[in-house]
Amino acid sequence: MEGSPSSSNAQNETTPFTPSEIARLKQILLNSSNHHHHHPHSLAETASMDSDYPEFTDSTHAWAVFADNPQKRAGGLERAVGTVVILFQLFTYWLFASEAIEDYQAGQVVVKTAHADCLAADEEPQGNFTCEAEVTNQLDAFVAFFMLGVFLTSDFLQAFRVIRDAPNGSPLVFASLAGIEVVCAYLAACIAISYNLYIGEVTDAVEVGVGLLFIRELSQRAYAGIRYGKTKQYKVFFGVLTSLVVIGMVLDPVWERKFAAKS
Known about the structure:
The protein is mainly alpha-helical and 263 residues long. The protein has 10 helices and 4 strands; from the N terminus they run ααααβαβααααββα. The chain has helices at 5-14, 19-37, 60-66, 76-106, 115-120, 138-165, 170-198, 202-216, 218-226, 234-259, and strands at residues 110-113, 129-132, 227-228, 231-232. Strands 1-2 form a two-stranded antiparallel ribbon. Strands 3-4 form a two-stranded antiparallel sheet. The chain is elongated, with a radius of gyration of 29 Å. The relative contact order is 0.11. Residues 6-14 and 35-51 have low confidence and may be disordered.
């Protein structure tokens, strides 16, 4: 019968919340969802997970920049690793740029000759060689610099935001260092690209620009190698890294003896 106690009890068992309570729960869930989807812009208010950085995510750059943030699990050792990676990148950019500048100033073009003949002639062979010297145009330059721009635009934006939001003191210093690394990557790539355009090597101009950007990946590759789950495996990472470097240096003369053309 309608309105009987048994019917009322069944209704209470199947609908434990009143319509107003259900509406209130929906509002709470909606507010919670909005809270999780609107991340704070302040660098000091980001989440505490080691990989959850507002910029330079999953890279040792983030360790160098955010080690001062008490909400991040990056300390002095992580900052040292991040700084060393940045300094190594800057050194590598300098090598690329300085070699391109030397070739630029000498007006050198690609000359192909036998390696043994080049050494025997004190790097001034008199015969048995060919050279290439072609001309590029503005379209070639656009292609090369467009590729470079696509790769680096997001990095420039990240660097700008990090420097803008960094507190004064050491956070600003290391944020600026990360920004300098991005600028130097761009300048070194520009010099290398410009030289290859000068000697007419369009594909080489694109390759050297993109190839230089692989140096920027060192930060992310080091981060991926050091982190293992929620731990950091420094001993394993540097042990394997040292082994690979030593093995490569040992194999280098072996390959030279095995494959190099005999004079």
